[in-house]
Amino acid sequence: MTESKLRELYEQNLRQMDNLTEKQQNILKAALSLFAEQGFDATSSSQIAKRAGVAVGSVYQHFHNKRELLMAVLTPLTKSVFSQAADQFIDKTLDKDYNSLEQFIRALVADRMLFISNNREEFKIMLGQLLSDNQLGPELNHAFNEQPKTTAFPIIDRLKKKKLIIDYPNDVIVQFVFGPLVTFFGKIILAIKPMPIDQEINYAVGLIVNGLTPRSN
């Protein structure tokens, strides 16, 4: 399965929401695009209306203020889109049998770094809202921590049986693997220019594989 960009999944979900009119869908899509491009505070209702092809009054006819509009934009992301993205990640990357530690780590790291890079603007919106409202935390934790972690554990157990990975608790191994991904995410969000993506992946894979390879006595 090819993993979709968050924006594509978002628009698919909007079309499936029976409680939204076409005009409301257009407003939400326009708001997401503008919030991603220039930030929540810098986006005006007139810009959203123009992008959506509606009158300015229509924006707040459906959403009482910009904060309510932001929550309406984010709800499909947290309730459906991120979980679907996590499911695609599991189908594409984790639901396989890997014959070496490096093969597993490279597939995982490359997939997640590319996913972060391709969806950086949506992640910026989410991070900004998380800092001011922790209601979104549980949904994101399930989609991007608990759900993939549970699926990764059987792969780690198989690598342990083959003595291809260090015999540490699975939680510790997952934390170690995701360390470089968190660092890369921080670079993207803070607009710190990363290295070319291939170099980022190669260095991260090298560090992780070196740290998790069993040492002979």
Automatic annotation (TrEMBL):
InterPro entries found in the cross-reference section: Homeodomain-like_sf (IPR009057), HTH-type_TetR-like_transc_reg (IPR050109), HTH_TetR (IPR001647)
Sections of the chain in a coiled coil: none
Keyword DNA-binding recorded: yes
Keyword Phosphoprotein: no
Domain HTH tetR-type span(s) in chain numbering: 21-81
Pfam family, one: TetR_N
Protein name: TetR/AcrR family transcriptional regulator
